[in-house]
Amino acid sequence: MSWKQRLQNHYTGGLGKGFQQFRMGVSLFFVGAVMLYLANQMLSPSLVQELAVLGALTVGGAGFVWAMMAHLRMLIGRLIHFFTRR
Question: Does 11 map to a domain?
């Protein structure tokens, strides 16, 4: 299977798979946001608070990137379907 076929299979794999990945990314983003809020409200300024904030930003950032990649996958899949439909 060529790389073009693999890319087409990836992007046209169905909206269900892409939406599932999108939901996972959004969930991670909101978990990171809640962790960030709790770290700033519950912990006193210290190294522990800074490490908790770093972890929250890492989780939230990873969730954001994951959600955006899944959204792009769904968008590109729709465009491929639109332009290759006959």
Answer: no
Rounded percentage of the chain residues whose pLDDT exceeds 70: 99
Per-residue pLDDT of 7-33, as tens digits, reads: 777 777 777 888 999 999 999 999 999
Number of neighbours of residue 78 by Cβ within 10 angstroms: 14
* 3 located within any domain: no
Inside any domain, residue 44 = yes
